[in-house]
UniProtKB/TrEMBL annotation, chain A:
UniProt similarity note: Belongs to the ABC transporter superfamily.
Taxonomic placement: Bacteria, Bacillati, Bacillota, Bacilli, Bacillales
Keyword ATP-binding appears in the UniProt entry: yes
Protein name (record): ABC transporter ATP-binding protein
Alphabetical list of Gene3D superfamilies matching this protein: P-loop containing nucleotide triphosphate hydrolases
InterPro entries noted in UniProt: AAA+_ATPase, ABC_transporter-like_ATP-bd, ABC_transporter-like_CS, P-loop_NTPase
Keywords assigned by UniProt, alphabetized: ATP-binding, Nucleotide-binding, Transport
Transmembrane segments: none
GO molecular function: ATP binding
Segments forming domain ABC transporter: 3-231
Automatic annotation (TrEMBL), chain B:
Transmembrane residue ranges: 12-30, 198-216, 236-259, 279-302, 314-334, 362-379
Organism whose genome encodes this protein: Paenibacillus tritici
Name used for this protein in its record: ABC transporter permease
The UniProt record lists the keyword Nucleotide-binding: no
Lineage: Bacteria, Bacillati, Bacillota, Bacilli, Bacillales
Keywords assigned: Membrane, Transmembrane, Transmembrane helix
Lineage top rank: taxon: Bacteria
Length: 291, 410
């Protein structure tokens, strides 16, 4: 199972939302990062057949994107913003979407839905109206509906938004299990999600591909660029705009800071091992794409 | 697909508009068909013509009667034409409303020609049938632009009875015609046509209020991305929604037809004819009303997909309804959304128009299928165009609020 994107471009009038994107993704969980307006949602909608590409090709498991009927069988999609028909219960919503996914047998639908509701911890809410669910519960239901037809490519847009830490860990485990023999494309702003679930990631910036590769390679590229220091408040106020700040935590009169810099930014500053968040910001500040 | 239809039917049951549709239909049934006037018209003659003077000694009035022969009809028609010629105006239909219209020179000439024609008929009335006289009115209507009060079926050319002897004679004629109707087994079909005529009024307008939002509901409920990305084909998706809604609305009418048949028999005291009446009412409902109902459902769906607004097909349907509501009888062109036959009698007239009615109904059944196919095609097109019609912009705006900016990573 492989996702192959080749010179993919999507334009809205004169504005290019995606510009000549090419990359390949194999089985497993793949992170998709980028600031707002980077083109992540456009890319995911294209893969979910909700948009037509302006040019370029996509193949999902050997099936070209233009063969929409077959692609829809292969793809499961959790959009960032979604809701269900008013008045539907959790089970009814799942059952309706399972029917639309072509799962005709009532028994089979019930088996799959019960299993998924169990996994996303919504079994007790199966008869609850969707509108009565909390944001986190609705998110879990969204994940379950995307998995109900056991797609080969699962596209999830901000799946952990609104989940508490316990649910988030549970969700990562669920994604991890589901990704066996499949591709999971995980778009998120929560870098921790990418760090703890993905081996590879893609970063988009203003519609272009900024990075595609292993997470380790991205952090390696930021090695020697991340510094930590303890400064008094006066020093901090004076120097705070000189360097891109990754974090600044006040501790009494002292500020514990973490900055990006090519050389030692302050006296006493020490180099540290970059996290994926540091590496991401380092990447976004580079003028040239390393791709 | 059956399971999907079942689900859609259950969803229809949750729609408030569906219950408003039921209330409106029941309201029309009890205020238009199941009324004292209807039972009076279907009962043996007594109400319309009386042998008691309802007027004064100077101006006696024994009720009204319809022209019973060629002479009476031609005379009444001539009187109406003369009236219009003297006034220099005539009544015309504009979007279902009657408005005064000034006669042009050509129209005056057409009316004068019709008077001459009627004079010729009145010279040897036995050589002509009443249909021949009606055709004179039909010709006038054509000359006046096809929307005048001379359209066949719009005017009954009835006139007041002014003497006791005349009233007795009229009552005898009506009684004999009632008995003939009864013997020919035409009482119940006449009642069923009357029922269908009245019930076609809500059938031609209310379904669109439901169907015009059926396919837009995905978008308004923010469920479109979940449904559009599914494997389901557009034919199955749109078809199941149309069939489910059509069935639910049809059930309301079929139940009302059963009630109508039963109540008619019960009120008229036609012992042992309930089964027959119900079958006749169901037959006319299926053939006259359901094509209207189904085409309204399909039109709402198609229009909403074409214009991406539910209000547009509703507005168009209202115009279509007004264009179809008059005349009360005799106009069954393919532009007529529903069949008007506002009489429990006039079997001969009905026979004469039966082919036209059949053509109209067959056309609307075919149109239903074509509109559903069109709606499915448009739905499929829209399915991969989530970015069009401002949808994406709105969603992007929402997304921008929901997602943190890159600075949030600091």
């Amino acid at each position: 199972m492989e996702l192959i994107i080749n010179h993919l471009t999507k334009s809205y009038g004169s504005k290019q939302a995606l510009q000549d994107i090419s990359f390949r993704v194999g089985e497993g969980i793949h992170g998709l990062l980028g600031p707002n307006g980077a083109g992540k949602t456009t890319l995911m909608r294209l893969l979910a057949t909700l948009l037509e590409p302006t040019s370029g090709t996509v193949e999902i498991g050997g099936v070209p994107l233009r063969d929409k009927a077959r692609v829809r069988e292969l793809v499961g999609y959790l959009p960032q913003e979604f809701a269900f028909y008013p008045g539907m219960s959790v089970y009814e919503a799942m059952d309706y979407l399972a029917l639309l996914s072509g799962i005709a047998g009532r028994g089979e639908r019930k088996r799959r839905i019960d299993n998924l509701l169990e996994q996303v911890n919504l079994m007790e809410q199966r008869r609850t109206k969707v509108k009565a669910l909390s944001g986190g519960m609705k998110r879990r239901l969204g994940v379950a509906q995307a998995m109900v037809h056991e797609p080969k490519l699962l596209i999830v847009d901000e799946p952990t938004a609104g989940l508490d830490p316990e649910e988030r860990i549970r969700f990562r485990r669920l994604l991890g299990r589901f990704a066996e023999g499949r591709i999971v494309l995980l778009s998120t702003h929560v870098v921790e999600d990418v760090e703890s679930t993905c081996e590879q990631m893609t970063v988009l910036h203003q519609g272009s591909l900024r990075y595609h590769g292993r997470i380790g390679d991205l952090t390696a590229a930021a090695a020697g660029q991340v510094w930590i220091a303890e400064l008094d408040r006066a020093e901090w106020e004076r120097d705070r705009d000189r360097f891109p700040v990754l974090s600044a935590v006040p501790e009494g009169n002292v500020m514990r800071v973490r900055v990006l810099a090519g050389e030692q930014p302050f006296a006493g500053a020490r180099q540290t091992v970059p996290s994926i968040e540091d590496a991401y910001l380092h990447l976004m500040r580079r003028e040239e794409s390393p791709v | 697909m059956m399971a999907l239809i079942g689900k859609e039917m259950r969803m229809t049951l949750r729609s408030l508009v569906f219950y408003l549709f039921i209330i409106a239909s029941v309201f029309f049934y009890f205020t238009s068909y199941a009324t004292e006037e209807t039972w009076g018209e279907l009962s043996p003659p007594a109400a319309s013509v009386t042998t008691q003077n309802l007027g004064t000694a100077e101006h006696p009035y024994y009720g009204r009667k319809q022209p019973g022969n060629t002479t009476e009809l031609a005379q009444r028609m001539k009187r109406e034409i003369d009236f219009d010629l003297n006034a220099g105006t005539t009544d015309k239909q504009r979007l279902g409303f009657s408005v005064k219209s000034k006669l042009t020179a050509e129209e005056k000439e057409a009316l004068s020609k019709a008077v001459s024609e009627l004079d010729r008929i009145l010279l040897t009335p036995d050589k002509y049938t009443m249909a021949n006289v009606y055709s004179v009115a039909g010709e006038i209507d054509k000359q006046l632009g096809g929307n005048s009060m001379y359209k066949v079926g719009l005017r009954d050319y009835g006139f007041p009875i002014e003497s006791y002897e005349e009233a007795v004679k009229a009552q005898a004629v009506i009684l004999s015609s009632y008995n003939a109707k009864l013997n020919a087994g035409e009482l119940l079909p006449g009642a069923a046509r009357y029922f269908s005529d009245y019930m076609s009024l809500p059938a031609g307008i209310f379904p669109v209020f439901l169907s015009a939002f059926l396919l837009l509901r995905d978008r308004s409920s923010r469920m479109s991305e979940l449904t559009y990305s599914r494997r389901v084909s557009s034919w199955v998706y749109v078809g199941s929604k149309c069939i489910a809604q059509g069935i639910m609305l049809s059930l309301v009418y079929l139940i009302l037809a059963v009630i109508g048949g039963w109540q008619t028999v019960d009120t008229l005291g036609l012992t042992g004819q309930t089964g027959e009446a119900v079958m006749i009412f169901l037959g006319y409902t299926a053939w006259w009303l359901l094509p209207t109902l189904w085409v309204s459902v399909a039109f709402g769906m198609f229009g909403s997909m074409l214009f991406r607004r539910g209000i547009v097909p509703i507005a168009l349907q209202i115009v279509w309804w007004f264009l179809s509501v008059l005349p009360l009888m005799g106009s069954y062109g393919l532009n007529r959304l529903f069949i008007r036959f506002n009489s429990p009698d006039d079997y001969q007239l009905y026979r004469g128009w039966a082919d036209e009615i059949a053509l109209n109904r067959s056309f609307y059944l075919m149109l239903t299928v074509l509109l559903v196919i069109g709606a499915a095609g448009l739905w499929e097109r829209n399915r991969s165009r989530l970015d069009s019609a401002g949808t994406l912009n709105r969603k992007k705006a929402k997304g921008a609020l929901a997602a943190p900016d890159p600075g949030a990573l600091r």
